[in-house]
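Entry:
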Amino acid sequence: MSLGIRQSDYFWADLLKQVDWYRDHASPEVAERYVNAVEATIRELANAPGLGRPRFTDWPGLAGLRSWRVQKPYHRHLIFYRHDGKTLMVERVVHGARDLPRRLLQSPHEAEE
């Protein structure tokens, strides 16, 4: 049975920021393929939420987060989520090379250094 899916405002801000980047630096087609890969990965997680590994168990505010890679060729991006057996709550989508704890605690609307 597939979990219900909810996406946080931060997830949407992360996604839109990355889509804009791909559109501006690659092409609208690449941006569309990115969205499709993220959506497919979220559906995969809704069907098997245990795929992702637990992350940041000792970090206040991040405990309980799991991560799973977006489908190739966008696999350097990670989807961060929680689930409770009924709902998959997608929290963020972030490039894996970032300072993840800092970035995950930071608003996606803050300027990056």
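The mean pLDDT is 93.
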